[in-house]
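hey so i finally got around to running the thing on that chain from the lab meeting. sorry it took forever, my laptop kept dying and i had to restart like 3 times. anyway pasting the input first so we r on the same page abt which one it is
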Amino acid sequence: MTKKNNNFVGEGGAEEQVDINLDDLFQDDSTKPESNFFVFEKIGDSVQGTLVMEPYEKTSKFGEQTIYTIQRSSDKKEFLVALKATTHKFNILQLKSAQVGDLLAFRLKDLVDVGKGNLCKSLEVRIRHMNKQ
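ok and heres what got predicted. didnt touch it at all, straight out
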């Protein structure tokens, strides 16, 4: 099944008619899920929530990272917060005692020029242990 879509704007700003194959989700960019990774862009950006699963390690194009999955209290949305093993080692050590159910907060404290092209993101972390007895 094919659907005509008039909402595509081509090169030069001209509106073009395109075909979308409704049977093949990979041909329809509107079906691509949004990323759950929280992105720290400017100083002061922050996220906090309940740790919903044990942190895990993953190697990606950014190197080795520890991933924290938290659920924001206000809207129950889940976010992934990735801390690089190299630049955020201190933060990872600070969060070693975190357990599922604890409240975690992450905030972009500073952007540091380390002379390698991209600015290094200096994060501040907080943890509130929710004692389960």
